[in-house]
Amino acid sequence: MNYKIVVDSCCELPEAEKNNPRFQSIPLTLMIDDAQIIDDETFDQKDFIRRVAASPNCPKSACPSPESYMKSYEGGYDCVFVVTLSEQLSGSYNSAVLGKNLFEENNIATKIHVFNSRSASAGETQTALKIEELANAGASFEEIVEQVEAFIEEMNTYFVLETLDTLRKNGRLSNLQAIIANVLSIKPIMGATPEGTIFKLEQARGMNKALTRMAEIVAKDVKEPEKKRLIISHCNCPERAELVKNLILAKISVKETVILDTAGVATMYANDGGVIVTI
Fold first, then answer.
1. Can you list the domains of the chain with their CATH numbers?
2. What does the pLDDT look like over 190-200, one tens digit per residue?
3. What tens digit of pLDDT does each residue of 240-260 get?
């Protein structure tokens, strides 16, 4: 099958896949003060973190246009699979679907399916790698769609952040009760609902205790871990990612472990020191 996998730039691709012609990342745009930053290979994480820390304003993001997605479907592929941020968190999914509808007006030979990851960051990576795995194993378009939609249903996403300010200010925590714990060094352990919204699982006093508790929850919740891929994305804190990996692997065995540094959109929401886990 001649296929392509399109992701939005909240998806952290492993280095091997960044150079894989079957993958294409469609960038979101980040905005802080008067600066507009394209979330592509030119993104400078440390500079962006510095800008956010120095600014009194909340950073924002803009999703890709439908035209950007539509152009990415070109090339005469048999199948195009698209993975986006949760529809509950971004307009990226709707843009990808509209781009699909526009493309299909004049191109009926290419089959396209847009997956709502119901997650972000490492969750999108999980989905994209599952698509590649099935396609390379010879699965049909319909089989991939069915199996990956089921995979998304079963996937779990967790994260612990130093601060929830960006999520709160951008309205991404509309279902979360007010948290006044910053002064008490309490770190909420967050998760994704089946619909792709964000909710609080638990909380712990201090970052290390929160990371330890998150690892315990991951190990408790996962089913058949030996068949699963553990993906950890971190924002400028590789030592925390390693700690979480070791805590989880002390309790369960997994098929593969991947550690990634966050790209632009995930950096904006996770902030310096955030850790995201999917399995």
1. 3-28+63-154 (3.40.50.10440), 157-278 (3.30.1180.10)
2. 999 999 988 88
3. 999 999 999 999 999 999 999
